[in-house]
Amino acid sequence: MILNAFGSTERKRAPWDARYASPIITLFGSTELDFRQAQLDEGETEIAIVAGCGAVEILVPSDLPVLVTGLSILGARSILGQSDNGILHGTDHASPDFATATGKRLRLAVFTAVGGVEVRQVPVGAPAGVVAPLAV
Fold first, then answer.
1. Domain locations in the chain?
2. Torsion-angle region of residue 88: left (phi > 0), alpha (psi -120 to 50) or beta?
3. I want to staple 93 with a disulfide (CB 3.0 to 4.6 A). Which of 52, 53, 79, 86 is the partner?
4. What pTM was computed for the model?
5. 11/13 Cα distance (integer angstroms)
6. Are 54 and 30 a contacting pair, CB within 8 Å?
7. pLDDT digits (tens, 9 = 90+) for 70-93
8. Distance from the Cα of residue 110 to its chain's centroid
């Protein structure tokens, strides 16, 4: 579990163990997670992210199948290139290879009260801190 009342929760500049991180709760502040540096077990890893008031930014390597579920009460969501905004909304989005993937898979449940959510896939070889969009 990771809990932060006021401030930011960041896991992006050094390797981190995502297997025991869930739930990640930030009451007031930002949450930034880079799964290119995360340690995951084989099979599916499920992580719940809850933000009271603030932004959530998540980077997932392009070779890691991912499914994103969740709900936002007020704010914008941009999940794997699909955007929506408004009051009380949420949709499930999966990378094309999620349903048939073997090996490591990531399931994210992202819930926010007030604030934006962005989940992007990024190139595998890009160094940490580089957030260039995945080439289309």
1. 2-122
2. left
3. 79
4. 0.89
5. 6
6. yes
7. 999 999 999 999 998 889 988 899
8. 7
